[in-house]
């Protein structure tokens, strides 16, 4: 029913707690059986995993079922393909799509220690699933480094949208002066550990300002969709604005088709998803900041929803909205953790019919975003991880661990207060050491990341920090981005330098509590939060983010995650004083289609960049033409003349930025100074960038002498 990709931010966190054995009222034994239909299928085929849970031959309901990779050591994190609630028939269904491979799967019923009839957990026998066909591949532009005089090393990154290992060969070819392609050499894909990268942006703009977006399969077609809360602000009075629910149903390629329906809520800044009435369809719970209430919206299975009666929230405790089975009865509950000023969070215990009963913890609980619910001590009851400002100790921001009491009423007890010396911007929970015990990954406001490894009892040991030079992380999420079964971290960050670009980094986990260095980094368009979901059905989580282009519209940009390998040929002679057009062709394999890189202009004219000084002035953004224009001044700082034509190139531009007026459109584009430059002389170039999203512009300048 629901692929388990997580989205954490300072305004929202959705975490599904995993129930396990709990000795209470002598739980009765259960049996779980798994069927897969079809058990053999081609790519882009929706597969249905059905778990049937019984006790003494009778169907069990309610409860949660995990669908897992049976080959993994633990049914957790990346090993979980998805989860589903048991219906009244005692069945739980997960719809999903996977890339070509052979899979061993099992279903795990988590037990219900506090349901009217407590049930023991149980695990199904392993079943096999075979997906046939070929996954998509891609080859990035060729990169070149100088090996020796007149010789170069050429490399290309091959990406795969799938879970099978990348194998095969890459051949490099060169075209000079529009002549016949010349093969430069062929190399096998290296055997180094698999990496990951984000594909180019897929963009779509929608009316209204989106307040929050989350992922989920809202029409049960096996692909992750998006749901967004939108608010149309009234220019005269913001209290008269209108709110809408926008559902973006996935097309399977990173694009979406949208439907918009009005909401009865006045100002909905946050929501969460879960199957609140046990019918196998995802529902929503929408928080209204004006009326201080939660409105359940029951899913119809086609991406639309029906609003139910709202529940008032005392003291107007606000988001984030968390989902977990807090009292262990097999029914998802809600928590509004609010902020420290309200102290106790609000807990709404699910009744299993889409309605909730409000309860307030008897003991005082201090919460401060970010807040997460997850079973940390293995007792099957979700625990609460939050942060707090300790005003009696300046510079200390404790991480608070509250353990679920497991008494069936959703109460918590403070287990530990970790004296943490950093302000916490974001945190997530995952097993980074592959020992079956959850760990904490924490993003700090001082350009560092900390891993706290779990001891299995709700306490933690702090590992050495991971430095993120030049980046201020504001959101992180744990997932397996390169398909190796080990937890990685996606980091959204701003730049420490003024007006620097937003950035997404993938920090690959080694499975032992350490991370590969350096992180894989890519500039992005937005400082807003992201959500994860498998939008193309390859079994690897992808990324969707928001960009507020103005007060009236929001752009959603998605990036598919590819796992990658590299191929390199070394010491290749290239004709000097020439414009080479180099491409790389991937042969494909038994698992992946062949693909070819875009052409890359490799210039072997003399590079004179070091002899020049560049200054830019007067750059202004035009909202009418969506362009950014100014003047680039080029000065010859050397003691000798630079012969013409002098070519000034702009490289490494962000994905959505292009030069609007280049003289020579090579790579990102070049401007020509026909007569070159005498010593100490300058030339001015009028530069105009196409910048439709008013994104930060960064580039690298390079200069050559010669006619391109």
UniProtKB/TrEMBL annotation:
It holds the Pfam family Big_3_5. Residues 1-26 form the signal peptide. Keywords: Signal. This is Bacterial Ig-like domain-containing protein. Residues 34-132 form the Bacterial Ig-like domain.
């Amino acid at each position: 029913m629901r692929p388990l990709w997580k989205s954490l931010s300072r305004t929202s966190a959705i975490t599904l707690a995993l129930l396990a054995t709990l000795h209470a009222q002598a739980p009765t034994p259960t049996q779980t059986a798994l069927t897969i239909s079809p058990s053999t299928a081609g790519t882009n085929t929706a597969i249905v995993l059905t778990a049937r849970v019984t006790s003494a031959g009778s169907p069990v309901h309610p409860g949660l079922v995990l669908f897992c990779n049976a080959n993994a050591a633990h049914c957790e994190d990346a090993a979980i393909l998805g989860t589903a609630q048991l219906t009244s028939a005692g069945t739980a269904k997960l719809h999903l799509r996977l890339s070509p491979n052979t899979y061993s799967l099992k279903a795990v019923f988590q037990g219900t220690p506090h349901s009217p009839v407590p049930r023991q957990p149980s695990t199904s026998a392993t079943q096999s699933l075979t997906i046939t066909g070929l996954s998509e591949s891609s080859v990035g532009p060729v990169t070149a480094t100088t090996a020796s005089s007149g010789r170069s090393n050429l490399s290309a990154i091959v990406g795969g949208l799938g879970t099978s290992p990348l194998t095969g060969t890459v051949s490099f070819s060169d075209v000079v002066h529009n002549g016949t392609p010349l093969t430069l050499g062929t190399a096998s894909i290296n055997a180094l550990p698999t990496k990951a990268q984000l594909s180019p942006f897929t963009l779509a703009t929608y009316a209204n300002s989106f307040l929050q977006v989350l992922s989920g399969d809202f029409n049960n077609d096996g692909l992750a969709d998006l749901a967004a809360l939108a608010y149309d602000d009234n220019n005269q009075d913001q209290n008269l604005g209108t709110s809408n629910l926008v559902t973006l149903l996935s097309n399977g390629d990173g694009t979406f088709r949208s439907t918009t329906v009005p909401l009865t809520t006045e100002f909905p800044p946050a929501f969460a998803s879960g199957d609140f009435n046990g019918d196998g369809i995802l529902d929503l719970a929408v928080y209204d900041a004006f009326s201080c209430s939660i409105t359940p919206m029951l899913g119809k299975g086609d991406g639309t929803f029906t609003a139910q009666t709202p529940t008032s929230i005392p003291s107007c405790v606000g988001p984030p909205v968390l989902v977990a089975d807090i009292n262990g009865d097999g029914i998802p509950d809600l928590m509004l953790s609010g902020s420290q000023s309200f102290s106790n969070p609000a807990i709404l215990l699910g009744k299993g019919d889409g309605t909730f009963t409000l309860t307030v913890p008897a003991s005082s609980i201090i919460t401060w975003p970010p807040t997460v619910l997850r079973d940390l001590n293995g007792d099957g009851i979700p625990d609460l991880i939050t942060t707090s400002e300790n005003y009696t100790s300046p510079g200390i921001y404790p991480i608070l661990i509250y353990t679920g009491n497991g008494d069936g009423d959703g109460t918590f007890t403070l287990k530990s207060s970790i004296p943490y010396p950093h302000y916490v911007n974001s945190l997530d929970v995952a097993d980074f050491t592959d020992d079956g015990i959850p760990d904490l990954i924490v993003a700090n406001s001082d350009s560092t990341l900390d891993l706290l490894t779990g001891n299995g009892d709700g306490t933690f040991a702090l590992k050495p920090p991971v430095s993120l030079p030049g980046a201020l992380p504001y959101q992180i999420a744990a997932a397996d981005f390169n398909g190796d079964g080990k937890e990685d971290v996606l980091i959204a960050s701003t730049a420490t330098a003024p007006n620097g670009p937003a950035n997404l980094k993938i920090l690959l986990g080694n499975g032992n509590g350490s991370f590969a260095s350096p992180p894989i980094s890519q500039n992005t368009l937005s400082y807003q939060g992201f959500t994860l979901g498998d939008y193309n059905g390859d079994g690897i989580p992808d990324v969707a983010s928001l960009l507020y282009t103005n007060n009236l519209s929001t752009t959603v940009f998605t990036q598919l995650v590819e796992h990658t390998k590299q191929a390199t040929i070394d010491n290749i002679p290239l004709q000097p004083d020439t414009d080479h057009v180099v491409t790389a062709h991937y042969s494909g394999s038994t698992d992946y289609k062949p693909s070819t890189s875009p052409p890359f202009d490799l210039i072997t004219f003399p590079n004179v960049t070091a002899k020049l000084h560049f200054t830019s002035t007067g750059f202004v953004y035009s909202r009418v033409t969506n362009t950014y224009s100014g003047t680039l001044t080029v000065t010859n700082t050397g003691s000798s003349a630079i012969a013409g034509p002098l070519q000034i190139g702009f490289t490494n531009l962000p994905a959505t930025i292009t030069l609007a007026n280049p003289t020579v459109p090579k790579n990102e584009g070049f401007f020509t100074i026909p007569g070159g430059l005498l010593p100490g002389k300058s030339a001015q170039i009028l530069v105009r960038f196409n910048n439709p999203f008013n994104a930060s512009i960064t580039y690298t300048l390079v200069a050559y002498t010669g006619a391109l």
